[in-house]
Amino acid sequence: MKIRKHYLTLRHAFPQLQEESPLETTLEELAAQLDCTHRNMVLLLKRMQQEQWLTWQPKKGRGNRSTLIFHMRKEQLLLEEAKQLVAKQDLQSALELLQSTEHSSHLREQFQDWLSGQFGFRSELQGDRRSDVLRFPLTQTIHALDPAAIHYAGESHLVNQLFDGLVRMDSKGEHIVPHLAHAWEVDETRTVWTFYLRKGVRFHHGREMSASDVKYALERLQRLAPRGLYSWAYAGIKEIVCPNETTVVIRLVERNELFLGFLSTNRAAIVPEDVCEAAGGWMGTNPVGTGPFRLAGHEHGIWILEAFPAYFQGRGFLDRVEVWTLPENEHLSDSTQKQPFQVMHNVRISDMDAQRWQQVRQSGMTTKFMTVNEKKEGPLRNPRIRQALSLALDRAYLLEQLSGDVIEEANSFFPNLATEVQEEPPAPLPYPSPSTTFEQLLHSAGYQGETLTLATIPQYEQDALLLQNMYALSGIKLQIMLIPAEQFNGELRMSADLVLFAIMVDEHRELRLYDMYKSMQQHAAPEVQRLLENSLQLLRDEIDPIRRKTLLEQLESQLKQRYSLLFLYRKHLKTAYHPSIRGISFDSLGWVRFRDIWFT
């Protein structure tokens, strides 16, 4: 409301004045503060007095000054203004309003407590029809919802609700099952894959999906994202042929047993050719897919998804989902009493609070690690210095600083790996005598105090700073280079000595590891490049998934033995949900699939 803004402007004009203290002033002075006319100032004061925000005692006569008394605290009015902005679904402006350093942290806490109560499930009556709505917060910015352009977990989750692929992976990551394609076959050379599409599948804009859309979607990836996630999979497509509207034949350059798994990822989601071409090739933040929800709109950080009635697997139970994106530095209250979300992702809840929830499910994890740039001239070409970096890794320190019941030390991408292939490690550092410092050990290994550069993305800056502090305690100098995620696979990181990153360990683990090792080839020593190339070739040729897992375990062990791969920690994905929810199921990132949710 403009009247609130006018009051706040007046209140800011007299910062030293306390509430209930009289101020002698004139209409002219007040009108100058609001840059309005004498007449409008009279009307505004009358309105503010009706709201009981202030008292205005005018005095007649030239030279006489009137009396103004403020009653309403500016913090209280700011809170009401922020609530009004939220009611208009302008969360971004509400947060910006309270971001000023002059406003107390207590005010922001009050707002966050109130905001928490706005999330969860609600049933709204619109005319004679009732709508079931789920609203939840996401502490992440949504930059794009185009399958070819997504980089972050929140974006990926929403893309899963908006799009479908030819096939999908079951939640355990054990079997690939039909989806937009009801069946498929592969020839004896295992380079020609034929998919048979379901009939009657419609895009959100109403047109029926056809084989030409599948061809367009995969060729579009090759054209628009030649270095994107899983690019090694779609770069191997030699030709796509559509014998008819429901048949797609994909010919690969060479055999790749990971290709079908790639088609189960949201990167391979099917997009409508007409919509994409009309938008210049990219869909950006205006996606059109075949998924169970369609994007109804997005403004001020709020993304509204509506159930797609014509979804080929049946309409979802929810009518609408509202995703309210909050800045990453905004944290809502930890107490479930103040945070009545029906679904909470990546949460920490106490044992007492956990009793109020139906289930806490761990369904995947992220693993943080560092790799060494052995192409760069510098101290890390020396295996003994790489070993020193490994010895100086204090994972207990990292966990203590990060804190959290979902974080644990990691030394593998396979948490349950019982045995590892052991190879001859580099010559060990001299065993320290009681008087030997770690700095002396480093010096004996050949480290001369050089500053090492650690490259990572802005989202991992906190981890990088912790590593910088940790290594400084051991006499190792580290400087941090932050590279945007969309540029991270480029040439810039090749100037760094170390690369800090993370991968999601879920049902697509072998794809993610293949992608990571493919990227690692760019900054590996020649002998490591050969090791990686040979191992990746074996993976592409191996039809047995159990054998592929063994190959990945062996490769990991070899890289660890030469200290080219340094593990930090893993973070489990935890999802808690309220007993009122029914139909809970999880997708590849451990997020709830909205289509299956219903409430009692």
From TrEMBL:
Domain Transcriptional regulator SgrR N-terminal HTH: 3-112
Record-annotated membrane-spanning stretches: none
Keyword terms, alphabetized: DNA-binding
Domain of life, per lineage: Bacteria
Solute-binding protein family domain ranges (all copies): 176-501
InterPro entries: SBP_5, SBP_5_dom, SgrR_HTH_N
Name this protein carries in UniProt: ABC transporter substrate-binding protein
Species of provenance: Paenibacillus anseongense
